[in-house]
From TrEMBL:
Residues 519-601 form the Ig-like domain. GO terms for molecular function: chemorepellent activity; semaphorin receptor binding. The lineage of its organism: Eukaryota, Metazoa, Chordata, Craniata, Vertebrata. PROSITE patterns: IG_LIKE (PS50835), SEMA (PS51004). PANTHER family: SEMAPHORIN, SEMAPHORIN-4A ISOFORM X1-RELATED. Residues 10-466 form the Sema domain. Keywords: Disulfide bond, Glycoprotein, Membrane, Signal, Transmembrane, Transmembrane helix. This is Sema domain-containing protein. The chain crosses the membrane at residues 689-711.
Length: 751
């Protein structure tokens, strides 16, 4: 398949992409709070069996956190596990960065038994083991090759009955993959992969799971597929199987797996191939059910897709076991070609006493002829806008007793998506921002009994409640969320958590909107009073109750609202010019899935100054074009006035950015007339005060000039003859008359 064809398939599949989240909660939202326990580079976590303690492997440390109470996450114990100075210096000599590569990053942290924990860290590119006493939290460590050298290379491990099963790389360059069993019991030797042929080709291990009922261990990874011939290497998602009690062969495959086999995972139709496995979560079967009902939820991306393409596929243990019980293909060591394999014991357990011929067939026939197909032969959801990196899943029991799969998908960009899978289509119930800026999510631990999801990031451990039902404040919003964990309590009149079959709770997860029967309620709350002055721009805010709701504005005075008077902004707000025609009551309504409810109501009132002239009923008011906008400051109605002054005008120190400040070409004569008449309706004391002050200043200047002239005459002495004195006096009197006349005329024009 060519690269061009695959890209075209991606474009076609984008039309079937997942719908946007119904609600979005930003970081530090009061409605959807999360708690961050700060740590450096959390790489591994697991929850104790009683759910009270969260064990965390971080950079240079291992911690135990108390998560038993309702007060959040608190530290119980901590042990430092920092590389020695010699190891750090050796790491730098190998060409590694001292700050990025040479600390100790804990890849593995697991319960080994009831008294000790097992940990494995990169330890400055020299992996080491550690055994930690749970009671004293003291540590004993030593060299190891059970986890990667690099802090960025992924691996997987699990413990079962005190034995450790690992899938990792065992060399400094990370080029030697290995699946092994350590701390083997009952006198069995430790076993690992045979190196006779290349069983794995540059794998990236993401997860592992134990089938205790059938004594098998499964590893999930992606690798290059040698069974396909393309121009570029094709990555294939795989599941590998080993038997828990495998003892190896007697002469052939000594201390090697005789039960190793691998099978492809198909997450394809009807979308393009999602061939890179990012994560796999094991969902145990319901209590009392067979282990064959175990489900595996995997996050897949495409080798050829962009950075935002991802899908989720579901596989069953029954299908995986059926493929491993089928036919196989064998690899010719010389020609590197695959052909049908023949053998009675391929993929089986208990081959320690088998013949050399049978073990030779096992050695080369390790790839299944069939593939493990996803439930429904395709993804349960596809996202063309988001790239998921981690997944956790649980079964949520609704109020009617029916169970629904609930997924928690995390992106490296910092968001958690809560998705419910129903018979209709997958829905993203909500989107919660966990951290700012992209960073890798290394670990995800779901504590369904406690109702918390723990996310390990570079900043620490983020504790996220699985549901915050109180964020849905009305019955309709609670029911429209279609969250199986939340329902509307009719007796308490609140959105509350649902733990099982309950009769008092209103909930709807599958039926149409006509089945929603919420009691009558006042959803708008109190009416907010907004006091404005005439000719001021008014902006009434309305926040969407959900991303899927459509907002509309109504008024008791006029139906519908004319576009010549009102502007509806994309953010849902309503803007208009305050006039006698636009004063009154307004309501913002939200419609979702055919259900309407009032979000907020306003009452826009006129603020009268002491010298205001009240418009008479006979005054002529015409529609003001929405293309023309006043140059006065806008009045924001986002917050109601204070309780002490209900008619207090809103702050008008800043103009509304959504309302233009210049008139458009369609400005009418009526608009100009209103703009010119506005000053006559309400006189300004400021203008009169300025005129009087100017006149007073002119008169003072003239009087000072006259006094200066008289003083000069007296100093020079009287002129010869009395007639000259009379003439000078007359000139002075004439100048004073001119000053008086000019002042009088200026005062008259100011009036």
């Amino acid at each position: 398949m060519s690269r061009t064809v695959l890209l075209l398939c991606l474009l076609v599949s984008s039309s079937n992409s997942l719908a946007p989240p119904r609600r979005s909660f930003p970081l530090n939202s009061t409605e959807r709070p999360v708690q961050l326990f700060p740590l450096q580079n959390v790489t591994s976590m697991f929850l104790s069996s009683d759910g009270s303690t969260l064990y965390v492997g971080a950079r240079d440390a291992v911690l135990s956190l108390d998560v038993s109470g309702g007060g959040g996450v608190t530290q119980k114990q901590r042990v430092s596990w920092r590389p020695t100075d010699d190891k750090a210096a050796e790491c730098r000599r190998k060409g590694k960065d001292s700050a990025v590569d040479c600390p100790n990053f804990v890849h593995v942290l697991l319960p080994l038994n009831s008294t000790h924990l097992y940990a494995c860290g990169s330890y400055a590119f020299s992996p080491q083991d550690a055994f930690i006493d749970r009671l004293t939290f003291s540590m004993v460590n030593g060299p190891s090759r059970r986890c990667p050298y690099s802090p960025f290379q992924r691996s997987s491990a699990l413990t079962s009955d005190g034995e450790l099963f690992t899938a990792t790389t065992t060399t400094f360059k990370g080029t030697m993959p290995q699946i092994s069993r350590h701390f083997s019991r009952d006198g069995r030797p430790d076993v690992s992969l045979d190196n006779y042929v290349s069983l794995l080709d540059e794998p990236v291990f993401v997860s592992s799971s134990a089938d205790s009922a059938n004594g098998k261990i499964y590893f999930f990874f992606s690798e290059f597929g040698s069974e396909f011939s393309f121009l570029e290497k094709l990555r294939i998602p795989r599941v590998a199987q080993v038997c828990k009690d495998d003892m190896g062969g007697r002469r052939i495959l000594q201390k090697k797996w005789t039960s190793f086999a691998k099978a492809p995972l198909l997450c394809q139709p009807p979308t393009p191939p999602h061939n890179v496995l990012q994560d796999m979560f094991t969902l145990p079967p319901p209590e009392g059910s067979s282990s064959s009902e175990t489900l595996f939820y995997g996050v897949f991306t495409s080798q050829w897709s962009g950075p935002s393409e991802s899908a989720v596929c579901v596989f069953t243990l029954q299908d995986i076991a059926a493929v491993f019980s089928g036919t196989y293909r064998k690899l010719d060591k010389n020609s590197q070609r695959w052909s049908p394999a023949s053998g009675r014991h391929l993929g089986q357990c208990g081959l320690a006493n088998s013949s050399d011929a049978d073990l030779e067939a096992v050695r080369t026939g390790f790839l299944t002829a069939g593939s493990v197909r996803a439930v429904g032969n395709g993804p349960v959801l596809v996202s063309a806008e988001r790239r998921y990196s981690r997944v956790a899943a649980m079964r949520a029991r609704a109020a009617n007793g029916k169970e629904f799969p609930l997924l928690f998908l995390v992106t490296d960009s910092g968001f958690l998506h809560k998705v419910v899978l129903s018979d209709q289509e997958p829905r993203i119930i909500e989107e919660v921002q966990l951290f700012t800026g992209p960073q890798p999510v290394r670990s995800l631990t779901l504590a369904s009994t406690k109702g918390v999801l723990f996310v390990g990031t570079s900043d620490g451990v983020v504790a996220v409640p699985l549901a915050t039902c109180s964020a849905h404040r009305t019955c309709s919003q609670c029911v429209l969320s279609r969250d199986p964990l939340c329902g509307w309590s009719q007796s308490r009149r609140v959105c509350t958590g649902v733990s099982g079959a309950e009769e008092d709770v209103i909930q709807n997860l599958e039926d149409g909107i006509e089945q929603i029967k919420c009691p009558e309620e006042e959803t708008a709350g109190d009416i907010r009073d907004v006091s404005v002055s005439l000719n001021q721009a008014v902006r009434l805010q309305c926040e969407k109750p959900s991303n899927l709701a459509v907002l509309s504005w109504t008024s008791h005075e006029r139906k519908p609202l004319p576009e010549t008077l009102f502007i509806r902004s994309p953010d849902g707000s309503l803007s208009f010019l305050a006039s006698a025609r636009t004063l009154g009551a307004y309501s913002c309504e939200a419609e979702e899935a055919g259900l309407r409810e009032v979000v907020v109501s306003y009452r826009v009132l006129d603020t009268f100054s002491p010298r205001s002239i009240v418009p008479q009923p006979g005054d002529d008011f015409e529609d003001i074009s929405t293309e023309t906008t006043v140059s006065q400051d806008a009045v924001s109605a986002q917050d109601p006035p204070s309780a002490g002054d209900p008619r207090r005008p809103a702050d008008t120190t800043q103009a509304d950015p959504d309302v233009p400040s210049k008139p458009g070409p369609s400005t009418s004569r009526t608009e100009n007339r209103i703009s010119m008449d506005a000053p006559r309706r309400e006189k300004s004391f400021h203008g009169e005060l300025v005129v009087v002050s100017l006149l007073l200043a002119v008169c003072v200047c003239v009087m000072a000039a006259g006094a200066l002239a008289l003083w000069r005459q007296k100093k020079a002495g009287p002129p010869v003859g009395s007639s000259a004195h009379v003439d000078d006096s007359s000139k002075t009197n004439d100048s004073m008359e001119i000053c008086s006349l000019e002042a009088g005329s200026e005062l008259k024009s100011g009036e």
